[in-house]
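Budget justification aside, the reviewers requested a transparent look at the raw inputs and outputs of the sequence design task funded under Objective 1. We therefore reproduce one unedited record. The lines immediately below are the structure tokens for a 371-residue chain.
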């Protein structure tokens, strides 16, 4: 089996699939060959694109009902992984959603949809983040159980587990084309480092997932890549324990980071799959909007970056076998919740690939199937 893509999605799936297959092999009444898995990453390092550029929040108020169910399941997995390794992967950081007068309806809808949220007045929001301007916040909501994810440690854990379970991990290898042989039930994949054969291809290529499908003559899923800009601004008096503050109107978010303030204009600019770069205009907009909502007076940006968030048309992840092409499995479209949903999605996908049941409370896996 070949997994295309070495972000958190691909590596999490490689680890979970290899470990599940190993357990099934040990439990089998009759001898069965253990699955051989190779993961192909075209960059020189893993997690170079979206995984390495995430703000790494785990919040049950982000995304669709399906993504929220996946987040709840992933929290349990991440707690267990941290306990097993002795390296905690989660650290509490509340999320505060703020709304001006024009967006009170949106905040009320979010409160209705999210049991983890509690509505509070501006004064209570200021207790958590003293820099918020009372005149810019008509109402707020707090998710006290939200957390930060240690993405680097999580990615390394999945990489170590995949290697220990026998997965072959390869970087600097690009998929160029491939053909399916119906008689033999296998793919012949042509890469810039030679050919290889696989009985199944898993497409975990992030922003390049539709491009990977096209190279194998599989119909695209209609994925959309949206650029998201993030900057770290110098700021005086920022508390390390301040929450992640998100504008419910989708205009900005910010949180403490490395002695300064991480800010974003929450932009969603359509982009081809590429090594995304922050635009100066988007950085300026982020600083301007955060200054309008706070008393911080940000004026100097220390560093900035951009990443691509990849969405299916319904904004849910796509997980499952292609409806037309035998031997092709989608694991794509994780959008803006990839870090916080990948652990549960990887276990779900591994179970599907091994024809085993796996239930996630509150999730109908059919909602994630490619159409």
């Amino acid at each position: 089996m070949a997994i295309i893509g070495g972000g958190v999605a691909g590596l999490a799936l490689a680890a979970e699939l290899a470990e599940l297959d190993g357990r099934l092999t040990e439990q089998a009444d009759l001898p069965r060959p253990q699955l051989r898995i190779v993961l192909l990453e075209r960059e020189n390092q893993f997690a170079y694109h979206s995984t390495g550029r995430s703000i790494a929040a785990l919040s049950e108020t982000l995304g669709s009902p399906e993504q929220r169910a996946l987040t709840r399941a992933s929290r349990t997995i991440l707690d267990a992984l941290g306990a097993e390794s002795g390296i905690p992967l989660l650290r509490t950081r509340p999320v505060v959603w703020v709304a001006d007068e024009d967006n009170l309806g949106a905040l009320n809808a979010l409160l209705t949809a999210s049991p983890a949220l509690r509505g509070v007045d501006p004064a209570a929001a200021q207790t958590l983040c003293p820099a918020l301007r009372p005149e810019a916040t008509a109402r707020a909501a707090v998710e006290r159980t939200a957390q930060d994810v240690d993405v680097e440690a999580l990615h390394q854990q999945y990489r170590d587990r995949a290697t220990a379970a026998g997965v072959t991990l390869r970087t600097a290898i690009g998929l160029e084309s491939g053909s399916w042989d119906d008689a033999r039930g296998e793919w012949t994949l042509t890469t810039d480092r030679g050919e290889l054969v696989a009985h199944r291809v898993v497409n975990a290529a992030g922003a390049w997932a539709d491009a990977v499908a096209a190279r194998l003559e599989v119909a695209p899923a209609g994925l959309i890549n949206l650029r998201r800009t993030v900057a770290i601004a110098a700021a005086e008096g920022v508390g390390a324990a301040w929450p992640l503050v998100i504008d419910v109107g989708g205009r900005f978010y910010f949180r403490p980071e490395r002695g300064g303030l991480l800010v974003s204009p929450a932009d969603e600019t359509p982009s081809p799959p590429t090594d995304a770069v922050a635009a100066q205009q988007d950085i300026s907009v982020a600083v301007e909007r955060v200054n309008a909502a706070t008393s911080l007076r940000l004026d100097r940006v220390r560093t900035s970056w951009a990443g691509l968030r990849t969405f299916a048309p319904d904004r849910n992840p796509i997980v499952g076998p292609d409806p037309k092409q035998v031997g092709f499995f989608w694991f794509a479209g994780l959008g803006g919740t990839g870090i916080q949903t990948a652990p549960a999605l990887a276990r779900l996908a591994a179970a599907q690939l091994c024809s085993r049941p796996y239930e996630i409370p509150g999730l109908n896996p059919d909602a994630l199937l490619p159409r």
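The longest helix spans residues 65-85. DSSP finds eight helices and 21 strands in the chain. Computational costs for records of this kind are itemized in the attached budget.
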